[in-house]
């Protein structure tokens, strides 16, 4: 038995076989080796048949079999001996097995007799335990049913009360705790079906509530935007009132009034969306309708249902569609009437979105809100560009600009960037001012056309305050007695009101537009209004509508008052722009109405000269060859002086001293030119010393008139009036001089005759005749000695002719 398990040894051909000389012997050895090694005999068989010697192969196989028969016989003998030994061992064990079997039988009988009562007790125990387990299972099933019924009852109660979240919680508890444990397949199927129906019903109900909220929130957004912008407007008005008080304090300080009253100002600037409880999403400050509860409940229910992302997308798409519809501008309603609703709707939309972004638990992200805002800004800018390009009224632009700036202030508080909107407003700054200038041009033209250029009568103090004090036109701080006749006509306060309104509108447009220092812009357009519009309108009135001295005098008086008004305009623009007055006073420019003022004074002077020319025409009645010098002035000069005195008494009531001085100086200069013109012209062929002495009296009367104006002017100004008569005075002095040839002395001529013209001196001097130089007098005076003065005058004439 043991030898059967030994491994087969591999037979290797011996060296003797290799050394065999016979090929057959060698083939036999190789075949034996292959058989012993369990190798394939196919090659040997093929070779045998190929060589035609199969018998040799068969012989070799038989020889190998005979060689192995002896080995087989030896192995069989060895196995037989082992088998005999094993049988002997089994026989010796047989008696032991029989004794063991008897012992086992006795032990089994004893065990059965002892264990039978125990087995009966065990069977009873197992039966009792099975009953207990069944009872426990029944009690557990009853408890589960009770819990299940309780949850179902509570779910139904919450659904009937509209408390969907708690209903879904009950449904989730049923699904988690009882669905898999329910033994009844019928009940389990029913529960699965009802749970699905309850969830679908809940989703439909909250979606319907959310849809109603989407409809209502549009109206809420519009009202909310109007409320927020209204609060921004109120805050701006408080700031304006505070600035007005500051300007009044600065004005009092400038006037050295120290009895100023100071008070603290309490501000109640609450956020339009300040809430008492962030959880309910309701605003309690002025707008109770701002309720986000339906939105948050719908979002929470969808979160509970696991539909959070879908609801986020649904909410964003619907709000985006609402914003797109808010961008629509009705072509049936003027934008001026609808712009507040348009911008308030957008403002309210983003106020609500800001609140939802901060309190909605991730319902909408900051990036999504910013993308919506960029879209809204782009659309609002395009709408403003389009509407501004169509508007032709400055007030309309101002109204819309103010509302847009309030929109910017409102939304900037919530972190939105409004620079693009402010850039659009700044872009249309020039157009607004051009329209404003056009409107002011029409108003000024109408005001000037309605003025009769008569002094303005004020019967009450409020009229004085409204027309004089409000523009700082008063020459004195003392309130006059009423009725009060102002030195100006109604044009002045009317134009001042127009200019003041222009300044305020300009500052209002430039304020809150993103540019802090805008005084230079306001001043530039103010200078254009004064220098182009007002000056041009006044110049046109002066050139076309003045038909009398009184009107011309009134316009000249108005120009003097306008000069004070222009200082007020500069200060007013600076105050409204927040620029210190000292800077304005340092950079004060020349009077902007200089053209119209010069034209008004020139017109007044021209009309006065025309009046004077009527009186000066009486110079034709002067006797140029009198025998005796006149004791008083000639008739023309008396008439002129009477008229000038009457003029001064009237003009000093309304004309400033400087204007009156310039006008009188111009008129006196004209009178002097008329006197020289009469002596120089062809009307006077010749004159004698007595006539020149009369003219000297006339000039002295005029100089006396100039001296008499000293109470109205300073001494220097009175002397300037006399210098207006310098040409006639120097000509008279030259003709009455005993040494006229001194005119040829440059020093004397520069000191005493600097206004005289050579040609006029020659012509007028040639007309001077000696008193004895009469017709036919040469027969009586022949051989008489020549007058030295006459000789000096002839020398002067001859020398001047030589020079010419």
UniProtKB/TrEMBL annotation:
Sorted UniProt keywords: Cytoplasm, Exocytosis, Transport
All copies of domain Exocyst complex subunit EXOC6/Sec15 C-terminal, residue ranges: 421-767
Protein's UniProt keywords contain Cytoplasm: yes
Ranges where the record places region Disordered: 1-25
Record-level GO BP terms: acceptance of pollen; Golgi to plasma membrane transport; intracellular protein transport; pollen germination; pollen tube growth; vesicle tethering involved in exocytosis
Entries under Pfam families matching the protein: EXOC6_Sec15_N, Sec15_C
InterPro entries, sorted: EXOC6/Sec15 (IPR007225), EXOC6/Sec15_C (IPR046361), EXOC6/Sec15_C_dom1 (IPR042045), EXOC6_Sec15_N (IPR048359), EXOC6PINT-1/Sec15/Tip20_C_dom2 (IPR042044)
Exocyst complex component EXOC6/Sec15 N-terminal domain span: 60-229
GO cellular component: cytosol; exocyst; membrane
Major localisation: cytoplasm
Biased composition (Basic residues): 1-11
Subcellular location: Cytoplasm, Cytosol
Entry similarity comment: Belongs to the SEC15 family.
Function: Component of the exocyst complex involved in the docking of exocytic vesicles with fusion sites on the plasma membrane during regulated or polarized secretion. Involved in polarized cell growth and organ morphogenesis. During cytokinesis, involved in cell plate initiation, cell plate maturation and formation of new primary cell wall.
Protein's name according to its UniProt entry: Exocyst complex component
Organism: Rhodamnia argentea
């Amino acid at each position: 038995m043991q030898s059967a398990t030994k491994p087969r040894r591999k037979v290797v051909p011996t060296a003797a076989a290799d050394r065999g000389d016979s090929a057959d012997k060698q083939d036999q050895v190789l075949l034996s080796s292959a058989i012993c090694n369990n190798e394939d005999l196919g090659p040997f068989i093929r070779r045998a048949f190929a060589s035609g010697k199969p018998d040799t192969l068969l012989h070799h196989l038989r020889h190998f079999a005979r060689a192995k028969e002896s080995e087989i016989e030896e192995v069989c003998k060895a196995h037989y001996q082992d088998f005999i030994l094993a049988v002997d061992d089994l026989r010796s064990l047989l008696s032991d097995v029989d004794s063991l079997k008897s012992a086992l039988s006795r032990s089994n009988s004893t065990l059965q007799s002892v264990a039978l009562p125990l087995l009966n007790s065990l069977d009873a125990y197992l039966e009792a335990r099975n009953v207990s387990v069944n009872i426990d299972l029944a009690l557990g099933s009853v408890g589960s049913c009770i819990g299940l019924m309780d949850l179902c009852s509570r779910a139904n109660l919450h659904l009937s009360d509209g408390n969907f979240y708690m209903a879904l919680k009950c449904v989730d508890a049923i699904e988690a705790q009882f669905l898999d444990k329910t033994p009844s397949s019928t009940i389990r199927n029913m529960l699965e079906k009802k749970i699905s129906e309850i969830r679908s019903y809940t989703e439909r109900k909250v979606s319907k509530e959310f849809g109603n909220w989407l409809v209502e929130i549009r109206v809420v957004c519009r009202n909310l935007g109007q409320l927020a912008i209204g609060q921004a407007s109120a805050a701006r008005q408080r700031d304006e009132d505070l600035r007005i008080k500051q300007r009044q304090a600065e004005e009092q300080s400038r006037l050295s009034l120290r009895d100023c009253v100071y008070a603290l100002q309490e501000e109640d600037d609450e956020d339009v969306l300040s809430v008492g409880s962030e959880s309910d999403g309701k605003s309690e400050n002025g707008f109770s309708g701002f309720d986000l509860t339906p939105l948050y409940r719908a979002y929470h229910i969808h979160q509970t249902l696991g539909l959070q992302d879908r609801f986020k997308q649904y909410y964003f798409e619907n709000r985006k569609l609402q914003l797109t519809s808010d961008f629509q501008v009705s072509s049936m309603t003027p934008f001026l009437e609808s712009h507040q609703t348009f911008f308030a709707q957008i403002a309210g939309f983003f106020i609500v979105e800001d609140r939802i972004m901060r309190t909605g638990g991730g319902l909408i992200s900051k990036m999504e809100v910013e993308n919506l805002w960029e879209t809204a800004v782009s659309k609002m800018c395009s709408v403003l560009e389009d509407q501004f390009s169509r508007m032709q009224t400055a007030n309309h632009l101002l109204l819309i600009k103010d509302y847009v700036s309030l929109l910017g202030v409102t939304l900037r508080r919530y972190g939105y960037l409004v620079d693009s909107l402010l850039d659009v407003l700044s872009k249309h700054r020039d157009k607004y001012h051009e329209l404003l200038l056009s409107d002011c041009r029409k108003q000024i033209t109408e005001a000037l056309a309605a003025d009769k250029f008569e002094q303005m009568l004020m019967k009450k103090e409020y009229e004085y305050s409204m027309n004089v004090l409000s523009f700082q036109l008063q020459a004195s701080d003392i309130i006059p007695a009423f009725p009060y006749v102002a030195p100006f006509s109604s044009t002045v306060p009317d134009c001042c009101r127009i200019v003041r309104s222009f300044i305020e509108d300009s500052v209002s447009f430039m304020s809150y537009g993103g540019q802090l220092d805008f005084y230079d812009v306001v001043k530039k357009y103010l200078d254009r209004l004064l220098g182009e519009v007002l000056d041009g309108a006044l110049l046109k009135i002066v050139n076309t509508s003045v038909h009398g001295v009184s009107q011309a005098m009134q316009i000249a008086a108005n120009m003097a008052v306008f000069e004070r008004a222009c200082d007020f305009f500069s200060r007013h623009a600076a105050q409204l722009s927040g620029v210190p007055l000292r800077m304005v006073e340092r950079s004060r420019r020349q009077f902007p109405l200089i053209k119209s003022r010069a034209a008004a004074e020139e017109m007044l002077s021209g009309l006065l000269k025309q009046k004077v020319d009527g009186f000066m025409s009486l110079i034709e009645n002067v006797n140029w060859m009198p025998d005796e010098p006149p004791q008083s002035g000639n008739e023309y000069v008396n008439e002129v002086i009477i008229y000038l005195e009457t003029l001064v008494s009237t003009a000093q009531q309304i004309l400033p001293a400087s204007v009156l001085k310039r006008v009188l100086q111009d008129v006196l200069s004209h009178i002097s030119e008329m006197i020289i013109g009469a002596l120089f012209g062809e009307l006077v062929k010749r004159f004698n010393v007595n006539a020149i002495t009369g003219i000297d009296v006339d000039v002295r009367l005029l100089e006396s008139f100039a001296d008499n104006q000293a109470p109205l002017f300073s001494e220097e100004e009175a002397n300037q009036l006399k210098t207006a008569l310098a040409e006639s005075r120097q000509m008279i002095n030259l003709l009455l001089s005993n040494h006229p040839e001194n005119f040829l002395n440059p020093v004397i001529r520069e000191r005493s005759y600097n206004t005289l013209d050579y040609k006029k001196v020659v012509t007028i001097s040639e007309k001077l005749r000696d008193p004895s130089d009469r017709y036919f007098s040469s027969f009586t005076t022949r051989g008489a000695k020549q007058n030295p003065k006459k000789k000096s005058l002839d020398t002067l004439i001859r020398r001047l002719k030589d020079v010419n």
